[in-house]
Write a structure and sequence with these properties.
Elements: E1 13-15, H1 21-43, H2 47-55, H3 63-69, E2 78-82, H4 88-95, E3 100-105, H5 108-121, E4 125-129, E5 143-149, H6 159-169, E6 170-181, E7 206-209, E8 230-233, H7 237-246, E9 250-257, H8 270-273, E10 279-285
Parallel strand pairs: 2-3, 2-5, 3-4, 5-6
Antiparallel strand pairs: 1-7, 6-10, 7-8, 9-10
The structure holds S-adenosylmethionine.
């Protein structure tokens, strides 16, 4: 279940998976416009708050991420954050012991926010506005850590290409960390106070819609039918595993957690919500001696 499925705005369509690279790009480009609208309207206009937060040495990492990243972070020269939004989590990595960060995001507005924040603090951060699939080759073999998740995977429409990017950006021996919505959450209706089947197919679900949920970004001041259409996919955990291993990475950790990172089921009593996996975590490693493709 994704943020925008939990939408009062509706206007949702079930979509087939993208069948060609052109279709993947068209969906990502539509998502870029959608995220620019969402970001401009207030998803992260809190630049001043983020500056204060980072200056105080705080970190926005999720407690679950800390459990499996704590020993890795202090040894990272460079972490690349894929789908970094306005960079609060990216800059938090510096407060966790990482020496330099690169944030990559498709949204012009988010990357501009991130630039302003790190410039104000004079931090060792570089920001790149591009589709994650176009991460620049100058960064190949450079990252000790690829960090991503918390609402990232659902926006992507070619998971194999994504995994290949992770592989090429990592140094041999480097890690990729993914902590994201558990795909099974798509199967439950977010609008009700019981666990009720949503109608989605765990194995084949892609949706598109306009509008943002009230619990997330809400009203952005643009009539819903004039907003850019956003495209999302449910990626089963096995697909994430297969994409990473096919790209040459070795999955060294998989976790399923009752802990959410956003209010996905606002009406569900806590004691029921904690009985389903809200999130999953995965850590994959690039072998020290590369195994060809
Ligand atoms: C829910 S936000 C993730 C936020 C992130 N966990 C954080 O707070 O730092 C999803 C982000 O993915 C970005 N995004 C979506 N599709 C992308 C793509 N194809 N390439 C790069 N970024 C993308 C959006 O612009 C948005 O900032």
């Amino acid at each position: 279940m994704t943020e925008s499925q939990n939408s009062d705005a509706g206007q949702e369509r079930i979509e087939p998976f993208a069948h060609s690279p052109e279709e993947v790009r068209a969906r990502h480009e539509s998502n870029r416009r959608g995220w620019n609208e969402g970001a401009a309207a207030g998803y992260t206009p809190e630049i001043e708050n983020t500056i204060r937060f980072i200056r105080e040495g705080q970190s926005n990492l999720h407690p679950v991420e800390r459990t499996y990243l704590a020993e890795i972070l202090p040894h990272c020269d460079l972490a690349i954050h894929l789908q970094c939004a306005s960079g609060k989590d990216t800059l938090s990595l510096l407060n966790e012991g990482v020496k330099r960060v690169v944030g990559i995001d498709i949204s012009d507005v988010h990357i501009e926010n991130a630039r302003r924040t790190s410039a104000a603090l004079n931090l060792p951060a570089t920001w790149i506005r591009c589709d994650v699939l176009d991460a620049p080759h100058e960064l190949d073999d450079s990252a000790d850590l690829i960090y991503t998740g918390r609402g990232a995977l659902c926006w992507l429409h070619d998971l194999d290409a994504w995994a290949r990017v992770i592989f090429r950006l990592l140094k041999p021996g480097g890690y990729a960390s993914i902590f994201d919505d558990h795909p099974i959450t798509w199967l439950f209706d977010p609008q009700v106070s019981t666990l009720q089947y949503s109608g989605y197919d765990y194995f084949h679900s892609c949706v598109s819609e306009v509008g943002w949920p009230d619990t997330y970004i809400g009203d952005i001041g643009i009539p819903v039918d004039q907003q850019s259409r956003k495209y999302e996919c449910l990626w089963p955990i096995s697909r994430v595993f297969q994409a990473l291993t096919k790209a040459g990475l070795v999955v060294v950790h998989l976790g399923e957690h009752p802990d959410p990172f956003w209010e996905q089921f606002p009406h569900l009593p806590e004691e029921i919500r904690r009985k389903i996996p809200n999130t999953f975590s995965m850590l994959a490693r690039k072998p020290r001696s590369e195994v060809p493709g």
